[in-house]
Amino acid sequence: MSRWTDFQSPLADGIRRFLAAKRAIARRYRTEEYALRLLDRFLVAQAVARGDQLTAELLDAFLASRPRARPRSFNHLLGVVRRCLDWLVGQGVLPGSPLRARPRRETARRVPCLFDLPQARWLLEAAGRLPDNPKGPGRGPTYRTLFALLYGLGLRVGEACRLQCGEVDLERALLVVQGAKFGKSRLVPCGPRMAGLLQAQLARRAGGGAAPEPQAPLFTFDGRHGIAPGSVSRTFRQLVRRLDLAVPAGTAPPRLHDLRHSFAVGTLLRWYRAGVDPAARLHHLATFLGHVDPASTAVYLTITADLLREANRRFEAFAGSALGEGAP
Hints:
The chain has 328 residues and is mainly α. The chain is 54% helix and 3% strand. It has 3 domains: 3-90; 117-243, hpI Integrase, Chain A, CATH 1.10.443.10; 258-326. It has helices spanning 12-24, 30-45, 56-65, 71-90, 117-128, 139-153, 157-161, 191-206, 229-243, 258-273, 278-289, 294-298, 305-326; strands spanning 168-169, 174-177, 186-189. The protein is globular and about 60 Å long. The relative contact order is 0.09.
């Protein structure tokens, strides 16, 4: 059965072609597809029979039917609908876009909870102690290695969950991250300690027998399917609640993506302490994280007290040198 059979509104064919066009340029568009399915079902429920019956009032009613407490969530839904309708206008499917709703103002940006090294160690130790269950043999070491990749290499959870056994190059201590965001692939150096964890994971996958096929998932409990990112996130939340970590005032509760934030900020802090100019190296970090440009990486660089202290030391050294050279 085709995955497109759910689309039944007058916009069904146009939505299919819109999604296909986006995926042709290496966009996954999974959450976007879900949002457009909601719109399609709403139009069917409202007995909309023709595209010219689509009005601003009808679209407002659709948005109101999908309440979003956070402005960012509402703006995402609105943006998906707007991009689709604009594309349909460009393709001549609609004479014009009736969408008139405006994005909501995002008054406060979420401040991530950054894990320092001791907190990361507590998390990994707690993960390593997770007991097995009938559907999850080897849960402890598997989740410990997964969280180590997220914190130690800044991988996205989806990237780690999709890793295949053949994408671990132990000889060169490299990971081959295939089909990342926007369809990009990259090589990620992992160093000897991380390579040791990956080697142990491969040994667990072999289970004392023949090595798994190169295309087999690296992180799996049934040997056939990779662990779902949602399962990793749920396990992370359970461990964090158990650890009862101290969260600084004004900081959001810890979430899985904060491990990636922690890697980026930790890298910047190490550069400061080593006397390296972060601005000159930011494009290296962007490449390592799989970003299109350093501007995307800058989103991760939350200012912390440690960073401010290191930046202040650098400025004082610069100012002292400059004043010393200019003194009579």
